[in-house]
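Crash report, auto-generated. Payload:
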Amino acid sequence: MLLIRCPYCATERPEIEFRHGGQAHVARPADPSAVDDAAWSEYLFFRDNPKGVAAERWRHVHGCGRFFNCLRDTVSDRILATYPAGAPRPTLGAEGAR
Amino acid sequence: MKFSFASVLSNALGGNAAWPAQWRSPEPKASYDAVIVGAGGHGLATAYYMAKERGLTNVAVIEKGWLGGGNTGRNTTIIRSNYLWEESEAIYEHAMGLWQELSTELNYNVMYSARGVMMLAHDRHDVETFKRHVHANRLAGIDNEWISAGEAKAFCPPLDVSPTLRFPVVGAALQRCGGVARHDAVAWGYARAASAMGVDIVQNCAVTGIRRDPSGAVAGVETSKGFIGAKKVGVVAAGHTSTVMAMAGVRMPLESYPLQALVSEPVKPFMPCVVMSNKIHAYMSQSDKGELVIGAGTDAYTSYSQRGALHISEHTLEAICELFPAVRRLRMLRNWGGIVDVTPDRSPIIGRTPVAGLFVNCGWGTGGFKATPGSGHVFAHTLATGEPHPIAAPFSLDRFRTGRLIDEAAAAAVAH
Amino acid sequence: MTAGRSFRLASGGLVARDAPLRFSFDGADYEGLAGDTLASALLANGVRLAGRSFKYHRPRGIVAAGSEEPNALVELGAVGRREPDTRATTAELFDGLSARSQNRWPSLRFDAMAVNSLFAPLLGAGFYYKTFMWPASFWERLYEPLIRRAAGLGRIAEARDPDRYETVHDHCDVLVVGAGPAGIAAALAAARAGAKTILVEEDFVAGGRLVADRREIDGVGGAEFARAAQAELAGLPNARVLVRTALFGAYDHGEYGAVERVTDHLADPPPFAVRQRLRRIFAKRCIVAAGAIERPLPFGDNDRPGVMLAGAVRAYLNRYAVTPGTRAVVFADNDDAARTLADLALAGVEVAAHVDPRPGAAARLTAASGVATRAIEGVVTRALGRLAVTGAASVDAAGAAWRVDCDLIAVSGGWTPSAHLTTHLGGKPAWREDIGAFAPGALPPGMAVAGAAAGDFGLADALTGGWAAGARAAQDLGFAPPPPREPKVDPDAPARASTLRVHPGARGKVFVDLQNDVTTGDVALARREGFRRPEHLKRYTTLGMATDQGKTSGPLGLAELAALEGREVSDLAPTTWRPPFTPVAIGALAGAHVGPDLQPTRLPPAHAVAVEMGAVFVPAGPWLRAQYYPQGAESGWLEAADAEVRAVRAAAGVCDVSTLGKFEVAGADAAAFLDFAFANPVGALAPGRVRYGLLLRDDGMAMDDGTVARLAPHRFVVTSSSVGGPAAHLHFDFQRQARKPDLDVRIENVTSQWAQFSVAGPRARDAIARVLDPAFDVSDAAFPYLAAGEARLAGGEPARLFRLSYSGERAYEIATPAQWGAGLFRALVAACEELGGRAYGLEALNVMRIEKGHVAGSEIDGRTTPRDLGLDKFVAKKKDFVGRAMLSRPTLLDPARPSLVGLRSVEPDARIVAGAHLLAEGAPFDARHDLGHVTTFGHSPTLGRWIALALVKDGAARIGTRLRAVEPLRGHDALCEVVAPAQFDPEGSRLHG
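Recovered output after restart:
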């Protein structure tokens, strides 16, 4: 059971209160009509899927209901940081550098 | 040495001292015509069919760990071909055909057991969906039938079909030729047969890079055992595909999830068939050793941890107890996780990539075992000719650009 | 024969001599004592044959005294409580316990299947991979059924388990696993420091080796020490000791799984008590003090009843006051043998010989223990006897062979730290040269190890190590650590350590994995065939895959493989340990989520009224909805639904649509937001108006549909489908938070807060007027088609009214807060009935929407575009919205894509069925001629025919043609007319009727 700190509720809660939302920082093209199929396909379907630190979206679905972002090591499943949606991806210190 | 009752008998008389190694364990050569990354069932089957049907034996299968140690040896071994779409029907039915004769083909008993796969319907929506599947399968000449709850009970006596269940069984789709096989034996059988024809299987050999020539085409792979040259590289690395493909700068429409399975303590025969309930995420059969083999749905988040969360297997066991009330006093013996690579449309990707000479066979998600022979067979064609096998052609990486998806899950691109 | 006489010592042990318990084994009655396990009680009665092995059906006895037992598996209970594969060594005795041996026929003493032993050379590792291939059809018909019948151990229950299970969540600062000396010390240190501490112990008595060996700490006996510590912890408000609680798994972020056996040991469990309790323990720190597992030593026929681990022999002597034999041979390669010798002698068991391969060790230890016995520097080569040990053959260093009569061989190949829990999160055990065994390697965050589990085999080390670990954990968490403790214990020397390795000399059949019948010959064969990695060896031979999970066989297998390979054991990687540490009842893992509690059922506010009316219900997602309301002589869904449709079309009907997803969307930018979230231009809606709303996914596929009503300039009420409610909610929240964070808009899911009813039919306005505040004007002038507004019910309760139609009739949807839902439904039903109408259910709803060609979940199946569904006319041309960009991909514009049409049977009674495929007249039934499929069907009393919606290739071009709807299973083959989706009143004149 992951214990996840919701950056809005400022409390650590069990994973079952949350819903995983896939890769974070995937920005929808600002002008959709100016983008070709390949770029849309990249936006919709292609993912980093990293073995190591992943930035991912979660939603505190059974709490405040808000989306936030999280840095998690996908090998150890340790959570390195959580931060509000819209905030830039934090840079990690030595512990998160792997 | 050919395996047969006679050879078992004569070896027994000789104290079983003369059995040779089932595969060679060579050091890698400097180069091959083709290198396959990943010695799971799909990779080994690919090598086997390249050697057997294309005469290409200057091939290496390289494996980071030990052969058959990934999802091949971690799945619940369900075999069926009753998929919805024509493209899926074709490839899984192709595999189904190969399963029938696989033990003889490989001279290795893979214990393919067509004991029937029953998919339970629990409400009207299931009924309509499953009937549509059944009809589509019948159109394509694929075995699948619709049976009532009473018939389901007769086919699988331990199943509880009482209408008072929270999710009552209201009928089922039954594929009688579906069943199970012994997963390890599939990897070993392909390895033995491929090795005997000259394919090198190199274990403990991790790929660390994919080298490309000045034109951008593949030149070979960097490994923990040094550089291995090859003009063709086929990546068959399941949950690790994204990582391997990233070495060639290719991004993939994949996410890797843990998928859990578990077995019970062994008991005398109880389950005569395979039962699946997609609605409540429970899959169960009984191995020849007597263990109940139970599969769960994927875990809720991507991970490479090769284990799962307790609450996910609990959830599956709740469903199993609902459907099979006699199992509650039986004990769970082992619980483990595999890493499955999932595509947006839940269908595999087989074929070329943007890098010349680099091919990929991945995205089998939670259902790759059943496809093993078919997947290897069509991918061998692709690697040998550079062109997709007709059955594999719809499963191109390019479909995500064109939108020609093969949507088995109806869940593509829900972006959250 | 030993049965009939008592092997209970006159005194000693942790058994209650004043509490005799009756029990039976294989139908014979015996007596044991409170405090016994089934195993100790059997041994006390001289019963040493306990089971048969998996493959060769060899007679087997009791090997261990704990959960590592590989052999003595029995069946307990009966019918629904029948429980196979239970270890006799952990089954706590109670009065009336009835146990049976397994995997034998006709009896345990004479098992016909033991004939398998004769064919052992044929049945070596992996033999089944090499044969049974010809002819292919024989595998399933003959070979596999035979193998399956022979395999398996016990029998599963025959019926539903009548017992209950539950799950609880525990939270603590420090979790200590194992109440042996190290665990007790750790728990005391942590608890005295003030940390919230939980000590779990799988046994029913705390103490571990303290109750199995004769030890003294600070002047008191080990058992007394454990009892006092347990009492102290139980008295602290911040500490708990949970016995009968096996910690079986370590999970992410400090979650641990444990199972507590609550009533398994009771003859008469109190009513309503749970049988077992799953404990999910969330701990900030965990100290694994799970002890060590003793290794057997391999020799010929080392599986005979009477070959027992030396530590288990001492446990039976000291804890249970039972002598497992009368004349013993001790075979060990470590100094712990001195304790075994002394304990045997003290209990009056004759020690026939002490065998130790290490130079000088046998003589030294024999002298040190003061036991008069023959010291042999050598190895036991094989055990003699069949159903029980009758002697031991041995060879000494000089090569001389010895035969010693005995009925017990106590063996010890040293101890392996129980590192299982330290590896569940991916850690690997590490070789420790100083103890000659694999021990815990890198630990997951928050975990520490202490005592024998950490390789500290001495009692003093375990106590100080455990104390230090407990103190450190408490200190880490901010508690002031207690002062260090220096207990005085009886001397530990000689040490218990010996290096894991094979001592050559074994003769005959040597078992590595007792339960799965894996011999050294199998290991050698597998290696010869290339299965040289421990993981391959395990899978090829099944070594370590039995119900004991390789606790005793794993190290032995590694040593054997290393010896064959000519490598050091330390060079090999042990196979991965997976949870659970000991097998856990599936019922306990499922907990209380059984029957109706498997998943919650959602009921709309007026559900009770529908029940009163005799409605027949159908599940729809999590909801239970009324399918139809049979009246009078109506015998089934078809008759009732026909009547309901007729009533709506002729008068008025009411349908409970409270299950629709309902959302309030408010804020200055609400219109702009909805314009982005919906594919059609809903933002342009005028206040007081409602319209259809279509949601798309990012890939251009239709996701759901519903309605959007603008109640005020900055306030909207939105609905989705019933099953799609949660997904629509997620969609709205995601678009708002992730895509449009700067908009001033708030979204609230009010699905459960409002009851909502659809009232349809030519008399619908009359029906609605009867429940509304008379002051509310429902005239067509004041409230025309697609009007929306707030109103009051006749009793003054708030309501919302929308003039919407799904049925094609004049229709209204009326909503009121949930608490008034039942009352409103009752009033609406009465109003409709007075007007000659009635309530209608999902079945009639579906028929009418097919008549009108409205799509629902069976068409919006995640694979259809607005164009496929004929909804492209709604899609906005100018604005940006979710899914827009992908709609123009050529693949989605392909005219051959299946598109929506209506069907009606040519013959009135020719039934069109769900999922039927569509073929041209005369076309063969195959995939190449497949044109599409029926998505939903029903019987239209209005049209007097079976009708359907279907997705058909080139659908629009086929309107006016005929197709066959073929269902191959039961031979339905209906000739149909292809029509426009809206078959009934295509002009929509009835909307205003």
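Post-recovery validation: Residues 74 and 101 of chain C are 5 Å apart (CA to CA).
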